[in-house]
Amino acid sequence: MTNYTGSEIFSSKTRVNPKDGKLVLANMFWVAFALLIGGTAGLLQTLVRSGHFELPFGIGYYQLLTLHGVILALVMTFFFIMGFQIAALSRTAGAFNNKERTLGWIGFWVMTVGTLMSAAMIAMNEASVLYTFYAPLQAHVLHYIGLTLVIVGTWVSVAGQLMRYFRWRKENKGHKTPLLSYMTAINNVMWIVCTIGVATTVIFQFIPWSLGWVETINITLSRTLFWYFGHPLVYFWLLPAYMVWYAVIPKVLGTKGFSDNLARVSFVLFLFFSIPVGIHHQLVDPGIDAFWKGLQVVLTFMVIIPSLMTAFSMFAVFETYGRKQGAKGLLDWFKKLPWTDARFVLVFIGMLFFIPGGLGGIINASGQMNQVVHNTIWIVGHFHITVGAPVILTYFAAMLFLLPHITGRKIDKIANRLGLFLAYTWALGMGIMSLAMHWAGLRGAPRRSTYSEYGGAEVATEWITYQVMQAVGGSFLFIAIIIAILMFLKLITGPKADDIEEFPVAMFMDQDAPVVKWVENWRLLIIITIFLILIAYTVPITQMFTEEIPGAKGFKLW
Ligand code: HAS
After folding, report:
1. Cα 148 to Cα 193: distance, rounded to the nearest angstrom
2. Stretch 524-531: mean pLDDT, rounded?
3. What distance in angstroms lies between residue 275's CA and the mean position of ligand 1's atoms?
4. I need a surface site. Which of 88, 144, 146, 250 has the fewest CB within 10 A?
5. Separation in Å, CA 523 to CA 109, 170, 518, 519, 529
6. Mean pLDDT to the nearest integer, 241-267
7. CA 70 – ligand 1 centroid, Å
8. φ and ψ at 386, to 5 degrees?
């Protein structure tokens, strides 16, 4: 046992190791670049769907939509998560050693090569299969190999991160792991377990099929393996945002987090329940028995619980803070929140979006209601107010403290103001666009579809107003993206700080309470995770092998 006391973690002087900082920064450059490209594609899509704009240079709508989904949902998020988690570990567990850092760099370069390969295929119009790459749409094999490399790159980086986490545990036996480090470990373990699904379908189904080694593909199986990965993917995006909510925001406010133990338990629940629920994306698909769909719906309701725990904790933090500032009445504390600090405002607006975002998720997951919204643009509205608001706005807030912390610059007034403008413009754009998407979806407007008058069908004329609204919202969002890029540039080139800007890490109201031991019993956690996966998936997947499911040839409809 070392003489570690834990107090240095909470000191504003403790910093991300400068060598680790370079790796973090490299990842963050990709985030800014991907945001710009993906955001531009998004703007153009909303303009096309409004019916008032045609794409130039023979660019296809689905080509653009694939670029938008891949570059924002996969590339931007993955680079951010790798960068942020490395920073969180380096800040709370201490510097990476050479081996761990080298793994981070190898992962970064493998992800870069994979991204460029896929991007090239999309640019050459060889892979307009959207980000979910559903068969029987068939892309060029290099697109699948590129995406595989992106995932493999994250594995390598994650290996370095997990080594750092376990090294800390070995060096500090008997102490509870710093919360942020613990949270990265949960997210990483979840990631490794869930990406096995997508790796399996790509390596054993998509690559041989796109090379022509086999003529057909089992679509039900490929979609099931995709969603085995695809749902935990959304929590892989979300958990770094929750890391900021739990462990950073209370310190930004100058108060304590609600409960360290509660935060750990909520992350464990994500590990248990985020994977055995993927079939809720296939509730209207044939080939899966209703019983197994029902079971996964029940498990989906379990994965709502840790988000409700998070909401409760955040309310507790805000109210406690407000009361400390002298708030008296029932809701007065609300006024006392730091409305001029962009780090807080970005996150808070994200949280507000997550209230309807989460409610929408509960609607999607409710078997019969899913029949109404599935494959409509409602779903696109849902994911824009989940990953596109709470998650991305929190990522922006993290950039605000992380970039100056690493580059030795200041969060000056201009950077803070850009952050505030970003928050409000984003809220306006996302509010208009996602509301229109939800309404149009309820009126039956399909998703994954370009502008069409559907042969003059009356119902389709109703959708056009909402599509114009989406273009208005999309335009505000594009302005917000430009502000985000300006903020990014300001944060890495702004005035040098005398004292390094803080990477805030909060203490908790139960800081000294003994840790709940089982939350770090990895053997137990992994056994329970695998047990739940086996219960949810063994029979449905076995049926996909044993029942006669006709295979599908590949289609290239673009
Ligand atoms: Fe979802 C489809 C169900 C959460 C993303 N989801 C998607 C797709 C994406 C996505 C990308 O069951 C589309 C995939 C595709 O391309 O086909 N989703 C859920 C459920 C949740 C949920 C039950 N989704 C997310 C998150 C995402 C995300 C998070 C990204 C990060 N989703 C579904 C289903 C489908 C689906 C079906 C398939 C639909 C179909 O048919 O295709 C839950 O995890 C949500 C729980 C969340 C809450 C909210 C808690 C609120 C908080 C904020 C508190 C606010 C505070 C501030 C403290 C219960 C934590 C307040 C202060 C004041 C003063 C007011």
Report:
1. 15
2. 98
3. 15
4. 146
5. 32, 16, 10, 10, 10
6. 97
7. 19
8. -115, -75
